[in-house]
Each structure stands twice: as structure tokens, then as C-alpha cells.
Amino acid sequence: MKINTNIKRLSLHDSHFENVERIGNDIELIFDWAKLDDFNEGGIEDGLILGKTKLTIKGISNEKFKGYFDGAKWKPMTGPIDFVNSWQEVANTKIDEKLKQFQLDGMYHAEKENYWIEWSFNYKNFEIEWNSHVTSAEWKEGKLPND
Question: What would the 3-class secondary structure string for the chain be?
Fold first, then answer.
């Protein structure tokens, strides 16, 4: 299943990057799971817990990575970001569809140090795709999506 509208209902809280592939200004992110507030396109008003999730984002611009080190202040981060091995998990997902801005943050581990990382960018469009899901009610009963 897939959607390409109303991305603000997506939450990646506690998700982990399984794969990241960049092609120019586009990126494909694979997460171990995600949450949608609703799936009205499928006739489901309840929230969904998605199994393995692919988020494809096209036309990324104004991309920034910042790290909060030693309780000091934000510093720009340079060099390649190791999404899969060093980004522990996503904490917050902030999406502004009017401004087409996307931001993720969470804990990052590199060079024997843990710190908070923030990734923000603008985008042109996106697509969220998944193969399995359960409703929020089913999730609360202990049911898991089958990937």
C-alpha cells in the first residue's frame, strides 16, 4: 500500500533506519516500522502501525544536520551521516506540508560519543509505502504487522 498525500500524519517515533539510498536530490529511507494517524484512503479512521516502511522523498533542498554536543550548543555536522549504524532511533517527526519542511531528530552515536542530532530539509514530494499493518487497537492487543 502507498500514499503520497497528507504526510503530516506520519510518525517515525522509535523507528530505526534500515537502509538509506541517495540519488541526487532524492532519498529513499527504509524504516523498521512507522505510524499513521489514519488511513482514510483505505477506509480506516483508526491509526495504523506499519511494518517495514519505505519513505521516498523527492527534491530535497536546504538540507541541514546539527548536533547538540556536551550540553553546549548546536553545531553544524559535516561529513557523511551514518543513518543505519549510528542514528540510534528517531525521536521526533515534524512535518510542515504548507512550507514543505521535514525534520527528524534523535540520539546519535559516533566516535565514542552520544549526542542529539537534528536533520531538516525542504522537499518537493514524497511517497510512503508499506506491505503490512495493524490498527492501533490491534497493536494495543499485542498484534504486530507481518513483514
Answer: CEECCCHHHEECCCCCEEEEEEECCEEEEEECCEEECCEHHHCECCCEEECCEEEEEECCEEEEEEEECCCCCEEECCCCCCCCCCEEEEEEEEEECCCCEEEEEEEEEECCEEEEEEEEEECCEEEEEECCEEEHHHHHCCCCCCC
